Every structure is written in structure tokens, then in C-alpha cells.
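Suppose a colleague, Dr. K., hands you the sequence of a protein chain of 400 amino acids and asks what its three-dimensional shape might be. Before reaching for any lab equipment, you can write down a predicted structure in C-alpha cell form. Begin with the sequence itself:
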Amino acid sequence: MNLSFLIAKRYFFSKKKKSFINFISIISMLGIGIGTMALVIVLSVFNGLEDLNRRIFKSFDPDLRILPMVGKSFILDEKQLNLIKSLNGIDYVTEVIQDNALVKYENSQMVVTLKGVDDGFQKHSPLRKSLVEGNFILQKDSVDYAFIGGNVYGALNISLQNIIEPLEIWYPRNRKSVSLNPDDNINRYTINISGVYSLEQFHDDYVYVPLSVAQQLTEYGNKRSSLEIQVKQGFEIPEIQKKIKKILGENFLVQNQDEQNASLFRAIKIEKLFIFIALLFIIGIASFNIFFSLTMLVIDKQQDIKTLFAMGADESMVKRIFFSEGAIVSFIGAIVGLILGGLICFLQENFGIIKMGMESSIVDAYPVKMQLSDFILTSISIIIITLIASYLPAQRAAKN
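The predicted structure, expressed as C-alpha cells, is then:
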């Protein structure tokens, strides 16, 4: 065993004298342990939230979405569409017309996101798994239906049993001149409601209708807002994304699910970063106790230091003794914190001990996901903080 570490270990674990210095060292160790545990838990919760959002988007957003680089619509090119559909790994392609519209039901009204989709959506969309009432139908026996989100259902107080009262959709006409008669400036369409889905608050204000209905309301004709692509299992989405970009050229955006929700994931990462910095700052405050305890230890061990120099020890060895003392305090605290944090996250991940406390939440318990990178980053940060806190006392000891 290294001599400097052996001496430092003896200073810390000595049973002959339990002084105030030992007490401060223990407080330092507890502070670093609690801070490390909190850091691991909080980072794992943010990972869990990010993973939960990805699972939500998997039910709502396509694997790939094609959007125009400029404007909100583009003219559908059948040749390019057929080339995309023929790519190996493409499950299906959905043509979409999407825009804001006003919907009315009885005496209530609200602005919603109107989304017209083709026949493939009803056959393949994973949104049917989020059905909470009624049926997942957009067209049956040449009759058109609307499939609505939970926010629309609740805000308009809709009853699916009331088949007499349809949903009325209003959309402003695309006209160069405005008519003095307000009715001439609005396209209207009445449609029955087939079912209701509930997924997540920010995604439950959609009204899905057949593509032909959206074409009639928006007067888009051969224009589309986007193309939504689902990739078969076992195929790499980035590879297919590159192939589609090559087919379409520079006038289109081809986004994967993370890119479709880039602002949300960016916000989660920024918040995670600031929480990490804040908790690291708390651990840094706790490490000041290491600085004070080592400083007092240097004063207390003046005779020992002189003896070591008399026996031939050099300055670097004395430095290593007090560096090792600081390392023992912080490493024990950090290891205990990492173990406790990992254990709590494991229990939460598998047993859901801490509940969300909301009946309408998507998951019952707080989502948690541990990542090795968080443990490594936390450990490295604590090592750096420890070296900084231990440097000045060790330097002072070597100069005595």
C-alpha cells in the first residue's frame, strides 16, 4: 500500500482520538453522499421523462415526417412519392393536410388542429391504441367520420351517444377578395364523431378527418402539408432518412421523431443541465468542509509533518498524504451516494414507489431511467471538486 495513503487512512480511521476535526470530516462525507445521491436521482428522473416523451411520440408522431422547407404546403409529386414508397424498409406513407380550424358542437366552440389523413392512417396508425371511447374509424360505407382528442371531447362536452348532433368544422376560404356576406368567406363541413383518443395534454386537441374532407375545407387540391412515414421494424431510420433526402433534394425537411420535437427535448436537456450545475454547486459547498477539516488537520499535525521531513520525506509526499485524506472523505461519501442513488432509482423504476398523484397522468409513478454516463459524469465532477478543495491545505502542509 502507498505510504502516503496509509498515513492518511490512519489519520481518518484512528480510534485513539475522536476530535472536532473527525466530526467535520464525517459531516463533509455525509454532505457529499447526500448531494451525490440527489444528483443521481434527479438526472435519472430527467432521463425517465425524456424516455416517456419518446414513447408518447411513438404513438402520435411518425418515424419520419416530410415538410416543405418554405411555406406550410407543397404540391404532391407522384413520381417522388412512388420512389419513397418503393424504398426497402418503408411500411406505409400517409398523406396529410393539417391546419388550424374552428369546430362547433351544440353551443360550444374551440380552435383545434384539423388533420386530414388518407386511408392508410386508419389501417396502420398506432393511435388506435390510445382509443378511450367509441371506434377508430374515419370512413366506413362511404360515410366520413371525425376522430377527436380528449381535450376537444372535454371542452365541447361531446356525447358520442348523441348521434343527432354532428360536429361542425369551419375553415376560412382562400380568397383574394373578401365577400360582404360572412358566410361566403367560410367553408363548413358537418361530420359525425366516431371515437375519442387520449394521449397527452398537448396532443389531445387534434381532430382527424379523411383527406377528402380536409381537401374540401382547405381547398388545397393536390397540395399537402406533410408526408408521414412509418418504417418497418428492423430497419435503420437514419439510413432511410438519408435516402429520402436524396430523392427529395434541398426543398424539403425530412425529420425523425427527435427532430420533430426538438424544442421539447432541448428544453429537457437544458433543464437537466441547470439542475446538474445547481446540485454540483451544493456538493461544492459541502466540499468546503473538506477544506476546513484538512486545514485544521494540517495545524493539528505540525509535529508529525516535521517528523516526516526529518525522516527524509519530501514535499510531494506530504502533499499526497493530505490529498489522500481529502480523497478518502469525498470518495466514501460519493460511493455511498452513488450506491444509495442507484438503489432508489432501481426501486422506483421497478416498483414505482413514488406516485405521480394525478388520476389523469399517463404513468402512475415518476419515470426513472438510469444511465451509466450520469454515474461517470457525477464521479468525475466529484473528483475534480475534491482535488480543488484539497489543494490549498496540502500545499500549506508541504510548505511548513
